[in-house]
Amino acid sequence: MTPPAAGAGATVATLRRRIAAQLAASCAGEDDATPDLDARLLVGHALGYSPTDLVLHDRESVPPAIERTVEAWADKRAAGVPVARILGEKEFWSLRFALSDGTLVPRPDTETLVAAALAALDGAGRRAAPLTILDLGTGSGAILLALLSELPRAIGIGIDLSEDAARTARRNAVALGLGERAHFLVGDWSAAISGRFDIVVSNPPYIAAADMADLPVAVRAHDPHLALDGGAEGLAVYPGLFDSLAAILAPQGMAFVEIGAGQAERVLQMGRERGYDAQSYRDFAGIERTIQLKPKAAKIGLEIGGEAANVRSP
Ligand SMILES: C[S@@+](CC[C@H](N)C(=O)[O-])C[C@H]1O[C@@H](n2cnc3c(N)ncnc32)[C@H](O)[C@@H]1O
To answer: Where along the chain is substrate bound (predicted)?
Structure first.
């Protein structure tokens, strides 16, 4: 079907189809292109409708100013800017996260880590316990805030080296009504943390140096380098992070870290060499995406705390 021309008094449906056709043409040949979804997100955002609600409003006419806004956004999308960067927000765990220059766009794959932590807590009968959570490299706060939204008695600290990210995470916590239970600090991983946590989570940078240049432009040009660069083999952060667990993980605590495709064997090994029980969880594509570490020796007692010192508030 030929998409309707611009300027013909667009309805929601005609605008959506025209934008989808423009985006399909601009991304022809890209495997992971989603022109229909992108068009729904752009039109829906401009009109204040969710992508699913949009279909209920298909016959409404679109005010010309909104049509022009959507057209400008579509031109940016066609030039390779991700939808989340155009709109300045991304949904993660069905929650809305504002983004800024210093934050990674949270990825659906990372929901594997959230689901793994919740499943492990359910298995231990601890979902309703007064838990403490530490999120290292918190970015937009996606992991910590998703967990807090599911764990009514938990409190948490998110740390990022990027002050911009820590500020954005704090804004997200307040916007999501979780500001009382989430605190954000600027710091170098857990260097300045004293106290032990029931749950330590991290999605560290894990792109290998050789792969950085091959990343899609949407990632390479729009996600912060600090959030991506995992050193020569992509595994540079894990040894230090795992070493630090001895000082920050409660005796019955659990750590969950995200990994890249093909990294599971070596990261599991790093965890086991340090005396942890280690297991992996797969994402929806079947890729081992999350590693869980648990101290082997069953120690008695649970330290609640997580007192942060010598770190700057954003
Ligand atoms: C892959 S991103 C993950 C962001 C977020 N947790 C998520 O899953 O969407 C890695 C994060 O680690 C942060 N980071 C990098 N080096 C760091 C360091 N030395 N100390 C603390 N955070 C760091 C980056 O700024 C970035 O926000």
So the answer is: 203-206
